Amino acid sequence: MQLARVIGSVVSTRKSDRLVGLKLLVAVPIDMDSMQEKGSPFITVDTVGAGEGEIIMWAGGSSSRQTDLTTSKPVDSAIIGIVDYVDIGGQRVYDKGAWAK
Q1: Is-above-0.90 flag for pTM?
Q2: Given a cut of 60, is residue 101 above it in pLDDT?
Q3: 17 part of a folded domain
């Protein structure tokens, strides 16, 4: 699992029938040391109701097809959790409640 921030969404009216009904989001990886965005954005399937601006946990490759919504679907990235807070070395480096204020 890795962390990323949701930065947008993707709408595709023409796609594989096996993707119909799945919510597609754009996310950018997060550096765990700084909690800053790093790397290139990617498209991921939302399985938990994530929204723009949220920090999410995601899985890639075959692990992304282990959810009820993505089993046997042509998916290589899935959001599997929404992060409430991150503690590293006894210090809180991210708190969703503090960020939302």
Answers
A1: no
A2: no
A3: no
pLDDT in tens, 21-58: 899 999 999 998 888 999 999 999 999 999 999 999 99
- Alpha carbons 45 and 26: distance in angstroms, whole number: 9
- Residue 1: how many other CB atoms lie within 10 Å: 10
Number of structural domains found in the chain: 1
Give CA 13 to chain center in angstroms.
21
Integer Cα distance of 38 and 58 in angstroms: 15
| Residue 79 lies in domain | 2-11+22-100
DSSP alpha helix (H) spans, 1-101: 96-100
Residue 36 pairs with which residues in a beta bridge?
A: 31
Residue 42 counted as domain residue: yes
**Per-residue CA distances from 43 to 34, 89, 96 (Å):** 23, 31, 22
Q: What is the CATH number of the domain that holds 37?
A: 2.40.50.220
CA distance 7 to 29: 10
